[in-house]
Amino acid sequence: MSRDVRGRVVLVTGASRGIGKRLALRLAKLGAKVALTARSVDDLTKLVAEVRALGANAESVPGDLTKPEDRERIVADTVSRFGALDVLVNCAGVCSFGEFSTSSEEIVRKVLEINFFAPVELTRVAVPHLTRSFETATDGWKPAIVNVASICGRWGIPSLPEHCASKHAFVGLTESLRCEFERFGIDVLLVLPGLVRSDDLNRHLLRNEGKIHLDFEGAQPSDEVAVAVLRSLRKRRSEAAVGFVSWWVWFGKRMFPRLVRFFMQRKVWTYAKRNK
Q1: Coil, strand or helix: which one is 13?
Q2: Are residues 70 and 63 in contact, defined by beta-carbon separation less than 8 angstroms?
Q3: What does the longest C-alpha to C-alpha distance in the chain come to?
Q4: Which residues are paired to 34 by β-bridges?
Q5: What's phi and psi for 257, nearest 5 deg?
Q6: Kind and range of the H or E run holding 163
Protein backbone atom coordinates (compact mmCIF):
# COMPACT_ATOMS: atom_id res chain seq x y z
CA MET A 1 0.00 0.00 0.00
CA SER A 2 1.31 3.43 -0.94
CA ARG A 3 2.15 5.82 1.90
CA ASP A 4 0.13 9.04 1.64
CA VAL A 5 2.10 12.04 2.93
CA ARG A 6 -0.75 14.53 2.62
CA GLY A 7 -1.14 16.35 5.93
CA ARG A 8 1.85 14.52 7.44
CA VAL A 9 4.75 16.32 9.11
CA VAL A 10 8.09 15.70 7.40
CA LEU A 11 11.40 16.99 8.80
CA VAL A 12 14.02 17.37 6.05
CA THR A 13 17.67 18.02 6.90
CA GLY A 14 20.09 19.70 4.51
CA ALA A 15 17.05 21.52 3.12
CA SER A 16 18.73 24.75 2.03
CA ARG A 17 20.10 23.25 -1.20
CA GLY A 18 20.52 20.14 -3.30
CA ILE A 19 18.50 17.02 -2.63
CA GLY A 20 16.87 18.40 0.52
CA LYS A 21 15.59 21.52 -1.23
CA ARG A 22 14.18 19.62 -4.22
CA LEU A 23 12.57 17.07 -1.95
CA ALA A 24 10.90 19.77 0.14
CA LEU A 25 9.29 21.28 -2.95
CA ARG A 26 8.04 17.90 -4.13
CA LEU A 27 6.64 17.05 -0.71
CA ALA A 28 4.84 20.39 -0.70
CA LYS A 29 3.12 19.57 -3.99
CA LEU A 30 1.77 16.40 -2.39
CA GLY A 31 0.32 18.33 0.54
CA ALA A 32 2.85 17.40 3.23
CA LYS A 33 3.70 19.76 6.07
CA VAL A 34 7.43 20.34 5.90
CA ALA A 35 9.89 21.37 8.59
CA LEU A 36 13.13 22.47 6.95
CA THR A 37 16.48 22.55 8.67
CA ALA A 38 19.98 23.62 7.63
CA ARG A 39 22.55 26.10 8.89
CA SER A 40 21.74 28.86 6.40
CA VAL A 41 18.86 30.96 7.75
CA ASP A 42 18.60 33.08 4.59
CA ASP A 43 18.38 30.06 2.27
CA LEU A 44 15.74 28.42 4.46
CA THR A 45 13.69 31.63 4.55
CA LYS A 46 13.63 31.74 0.75
CA LEU A 47 12.70 28.07 0.52
CA VAL A 48 9.87 28.42 3.03
CA ALA A 49 8.45 31.21 0.87
CA GLU A 50 8.65 28.94 -2.21
CA VAL A 51 6.92 26.09 -0.40
CA ARG A 52 4.16 28.32 0.94
CA ALA A 53 3.63 29.71 -2.55
CA LEU A 54 2.67 26.16 -3.54
CA GLY A 55 -0.06 26.25 -0.89
CA ALA A 56 1.75 23.99 1.58
CA ASN A 57 2.53 24.50 5.24
CA ALA A 58 6.23 25.03 5.89
CA GLU A 59 8.40 26.13 8.79
CA SER A 60 12.09 26.96 9.04
CA VAL A 61 13.97 25.37 11.95
CA PRO A 62 17.60 26.34 11.33
CA GLY A 63 20.44 24.82 13.29
CA ASP A 64 23.74 22.96 13.29
CA LEU A 65 23.08 19.22 13.42
CA THR A 66 26.51 18.56 14.93
CA LYS A 67 25.42 20.36 18.13
CA PRO A 68 23.31 18.35 20.63
CA GLU A 69 21.35 21.40 21.76
CA ASP A 70 20.44 22.28 18.17
CA ARG A 71 19.24 18.74 17.43
CA GLU A 72 16.99 18.81 20.48
CA ARG A 73 15.64 22.24 19.55
CA ILE A 74 15.02 21.35 15.89
CA VAL A 75 12.86 18.36 16.79
CA ALA A 76 11.13 20.17 19.66
CA ASP A 77 10.32 23.18 17.47
CA THR A 78 8.98 20.93 14.72
CA VAL A 79 6.64 19.12 17.12
CA SER A 80 5.64 22.40 18.79
CA ARG A 81 4.72 24.11 15.53
CA PHE A 82 3.02 21.19 13.80
CA GLY A 83 1.88 19.07 16.72
CA ALA A 84 3.63 15.90 15.53
CA LEU A 85 6.53 14.38 13.63
CA ASP A 86 5.67 11.68 11.11
CA VAL A 87 8.72 11.36 8.84
CA LEU A 88 12.42 12.16 9.22
CA VAL A 89 14.55 12.49 6.08
CA ASN A 90 18.31 12.62 6.71
CA CYS A 91 19.76 14.44 3.68
CA ALA A 92 22.49 16.65 5.12
CA GLY A 93 26.09 15.73 4.35
CA VAL A 94 29.51 16.73 3.11
CA CYS A 95 32.18 15.04 0.99
CA SER A 96 35.97 14.99 0.87
CA PHE A 97 37.52 14.11 -2.50
CA GLY A 98 41.19 13.23 -2.08
CA GLU A 99 43.69 10.55 -1.21
CA PHE A 100 43.97 9.03 2.26
CA SER A 101 47.73 9.73 2.23
CA THR A 102 47.11 13.49 1.98
CA SER A 103 44.17 13.59 4.40
CA SER A 104 44.18 14.34 8.11
CA GLU A 105 42.50 13.33 11.32
CA GLU A 106 40.61 16.63 11.27
CA ILE A 107 39.01 15.84 7.91
CA VAL A 108 38.12 12.28 8.89
CA ARG A 109 36.47 13.42 12.10
CA LYS A 110 34.57 16.27 10.41
CA VAL A 111 33.16 14.02 7.67
CA LEU A 112 32.08 11.38 10.19
CA GLU A 113 30.63 14.01 12.50
CA ILE A 114 28.39 15.46 9.77
CA ASN A 115 27.60 12.34 7.73
CA PHE A 116 27.21 9.83 10.54
CA PHE A 117 27.06 11.07 14.13
CA ALA A 118 24.74 14.02 13.39
CA PRO A 119 21.97 12.00 11.67
CA VAL A 120 22.38 9.17 14.17
CA GLU A 121 21.78 11.44 17.15
CA LEU A 122 19.01 13.38 15.39
CA THR A 123 17.29 10.05 14.80
CA ARG A 124 17.64 9.22 18.49
CA VAL A 125 15.86 12.46 19.40
CA ALA A 126 13.14 11.93 16.78
CA VAL A 127 12.26 8.29 17.56
CA PRO A 128 9.89 8.94 20.51
CA HIS A 129 7.84 11.31 18.35
CA LEU A 130 7.81 8.92 15.39
CA THR A 131 6.68 6.14 17.73
CA ARG A 132 3.87 8.35 18.96
CA SER A 133 2.87 9.00 15.35
CA PHE A 134 2.38 5.26 14.87
CA GLU A 135 0.59 4.72 18.19
CA THR A 136 -1.92 7.51 17.59
CA ALA A 137 -2.66 6.69 13.95
CA THR A 138 -6.16 5.45 13.16
CA ASP A 139 -5.75 4.93 9.42
CA GLY A 140 -2.93 2.39 9.24
CA TRP A 141 -0.29 5.12 8.97
CA LYS A 142 3.30 4.01 9.46
CA PRO A 143 5.97 6.66 10.14
CA ALA A 144 9.36 6.49 8.46
CA ILE A 145 13.02 7.42 8.62
CA VAL A 146 14.62 7.88 5.20
CA ASN A 147 18.42 7.85 5.21
CA VAL A 148 19.97 9.31 2.07
CA ALA A 149 23.41 7.72 2.06
CA SER A 150 25.47 6.93 -1.06
CA ILE A 151 26.53 4.00 -3.19
CA CYS A 152 29.87 4.67 -1.42
CA GLY A 153 28.18 2.98 1.52
CA ARG A 154 28.10 -0.28 -0.43
CA TRP A 155 31.51 -0.16 -2.12
CA GLY A 156 34.64 1.81 -1.30
CA ILE A 157 35.48 4.29 -4.08
CA PRO A 158 39.11 5.44 -4.61
CA SER A 159 39.88 9.02 -3.54
CA LEU A 160 36.81 9.08 -1.28
CA PRO A 161 38.07 7.25 1.85
CA GLU A 162 36.44 9.46 4.51
CA HIS A 163 33.18 9.72 2.58
CA CYS A 164 33.04 5.95 2.08
CA ALA A 165 33.80 5.30 5.75
CA SER A 166 30.99 7.59 6.90
CA LYS A 167 28.48 6.15 4.42
CA HIS A 168 29.38 2.53 5.22
CA ALA A 169 28.71 3.31 8.87
CA PHE A 170 25.42 5.01 7.97
CA VAL A 171 24.30 2.06 5.84
CA GLY A 172 25.18 -0.42 8.59
CA LEU A 173 23.24 1.56 11.17
CA THR A 174 20.26 1.82 8.83
CA GLU A 175 20.12 -1.95 8.38
CA SER A 176 20.32 -2.52 12.11
CA LEU A 177 17.64 0.05 12.94
CA ARG A 178 15.34 -1.34 10.26
CA CYS A 179 15.04 -4.51 12.31
CA GLU A 180 14.99 -2.83 15.72
CA PHE A 181 12.37 -0.20 14.85
CA GLU A 182 9.90 -2.68 13.40
CA ARG A 183 8.54 -3.13 16.90
CA PHE A 184 7.89 0.63 17.07
CA GLY A 185 6.03 0.61 13.77
CA ILE A 186 8.68 2.74 12.05
CA ASP A 187 9.95 2.04 8.53
CA VAL A 188 13.69 2.66 8.05
CA LEU A 189 14.49 3.23 4.39
CA LEU A 190 17.79 3.62 2.55
CA VAL A 191 18.48 5.58 -0.64
CA LEU A 192 21.84 5.17 -2.42
CA PRO A 193 22.57 7.86 -5.03
CA GLY A 194 25.78 7.97 -7.01
CA LEU A 195 27.67 11.16 -7.73
CA VAL A 196 25.19 14.03 -7.31
CA ARG A 197 25.50 17.42 -8.96
CA SER A 198 25.94 20.06 -6.26
CA ASP A 199 24.49 23.59 -6.23
CA ASP A 200 27.82 24.80 -4.88
CA LEU A 201 30.69 22.33 -5.23
CA ASN A 202 33.00 24.37 -3.02
CA ARG A 203 30.52 24.22 -0.14
CA HIS A 204 29.88 20.52 -0.61
CA LEU A 205 33.52 19.39 -0.83
CA LEU A 206 35.93 19.79 2.08
CA ARG A 207 38.73 19.23 -0.45
CA ASN A 208 38.86 18.59 -4.20
CA GLU A 209 42.15 16.91 -5.07
CA GLY A 210 41.33 13.28 -5.84
CA LYS A 211 43.53 11.19 -8.13
CA ILE A 212 40.74 9.65 -10.19
CA HIS A 213 38.38 11.28 -12.65
CA LEU A 214 34.93 12.13 -11.29
CA ASP A 215 32.60 13.99 -13.65
CA PHE A 216 30.99 16.44 -11.22
CA GLU A 217 29.40 18.42 -14.06
CA GLY A 218 27.86 15.30 -15.56
CA ALA A 219 26.67 13.92 -12.22
CA GLN A 220 23.02 13.09 -11.65
CA PRO A 221 20.78 16.09 -10.86
CA SER A 222 19.61 16.61 -7.30
CA ASP A 223 16.01 16.50 -8.45
CA GLU A 224 16.48 12.99 -9.81
CA VAL A 225 17.57 11.83 -6.37
CA ALA A 226 14.72 13.74 -4.71
CA VAL A 227 12.25 11.87 -6.93
CA ALA A 228 13.80 8.57 -5.85
CA VAL A 229 13.66 9.53 -2.17
CA LEU A 230 9.99 10.42 -2.48
CA ARG A 231 9.29 7.20 -4.38
CA SER A 232 11.01 5.14 -1.69
CA LEU A 233 9.01 6.90 1.01
CA ARG A 234 5.68 6.42 -0.72
CA LYS A 235 6.31 2.86 -1.96
CA ARG A 236 8.05 1.75 1.26
CA ARG A 237 11.18 0.58 -0.53
CA SER A 238 13.69 -0.62 2.02
CA GLU A 239 16.67 0.12 -0.27
CA ALA A 240 17.01 1.88 -3.61
CA ALA A 241 20.08 2.56 -5.75
CA VAL A 242 19.56 5.76 -7.75
CA GLY A 243 20.91 6.21 -11.26
CA PHE A 244 22.63 3.81 -13.66
CA VAL A 245 26.13 4.08 -12.15
CA SER A 246 24.86 3.57 -8.62
CA TRP A 247 22.72 0.63 -9.70
CA TRP A 248 25.64 -0.90 -11.64
CA VAL A 249 27.91 -0.77 -8.59
CA TRP A 250 25.11 -2.03 -6.33
CA PHE A 251 24.34 -4.98 -8.65
CA GLY A 252 27.95 -5.60 -9.62
CA LYS A 253 29.09 -6.00 -6.03
CA ARG A 254 26.61 -8.83 -5.60
CA MET A 255 27.18 -10.57 -8.91
CA PHE A 256 30.66 -9.57 -10.15
CA PRO A 257 32.73 -8.21 -7.23
CA ARG A 258 36.08 -8.92 -8.92
CA LEU A 259 35.00 -7.00 -12.01
CA VAL A 260 33.96 -3.98 -9.95
CA ARG A 261 37.26 -4.08 -8.05
CA PHE A 262 39.18 -4.26 -11.35
CA PHE A 263 37.24 -1.29 -12.70
CA MET A 264 38.00 0.81 -9.61
CA GLN A 265 41.69 -0.07 -9.70
CA ARG A 266 41.88 0.74 -13.42
CA LYS A 267 40.46 4.22 -12.76
CA VAL A 268 43.35 4.88 -10.37
CA TRP A 269 46.03 3.62 -12.77
CA THR A 270 44.50 5.42 -15.76
CA TYR A 271 44.54 8.73 -13.93
CA ALA A 272 48.12 8.15 -12.77
CA LYS A 273 49.35 7.46 -16.32
CA ARG A 274 47.62 10.53 -17.72
CA ASN A 275 49.09 12.82 -15.09
CA LYS A 276 52.72 11.70 -14.99
Answers
A1: strand
A2: yes
A3: 66
A4: 10, 58
A5: -60, -35
A6: helix 161-180
Residue type, 204: H
Architecture of the domain whose range is 9-249: 3-Layer(aba) Sandwich (3.40)
Cα gap 58→48, rounded to integer Å: 6
Q: Which amino acid appears at position 181 of this protein?
A: F
How far is it, in rounded angstroms, from Cα 105 to Cα 64?
21
Secondary element (H or E) of residue 148: strand 144-148
Q: What is the pLDDT of residues 182-216, one digit of tens each?
A: 999 999 999 999 878 776 555 677 888 877 777 66
Model confidence, pTM: 0.89
Annotate 38-104 with DSSP letters as a single string. -S-HHHHHHHHHHHHHTT--EEE----TTSHHHHHHHHHHHHHHHS---EEEE----EEES-GGG--
**265 DSSP 8-state letter:** H
CB neighbours of 93 closer than 8 A, spacing ≥ 6? 14, 114, 115, 148, 166
Q: Average pLDDT of 168-179?
A: 96
**144-148 and 87-90: which strand pairing?**
parallel
Domain map (residue ranges) of the chain: 9-249
- How far is residue 111's CA from residue 15's CA, in Å, rounded to a whole number? 18
In contact, 234 and 3? CB cutoff 8 Å: yes
* 61 closest CA partner among 46, 39, 83: 39
Tens-digit pLDDT profile for residues 15-66: 999 999 999 999 999 999 999 999 999 999 999 999 999 999 999 999 999 9
Helix, strand, or coil (residue 162): helix
Under DSSP, is residue 183 helix (H, G, I), strand (E, B) or coil?
helix
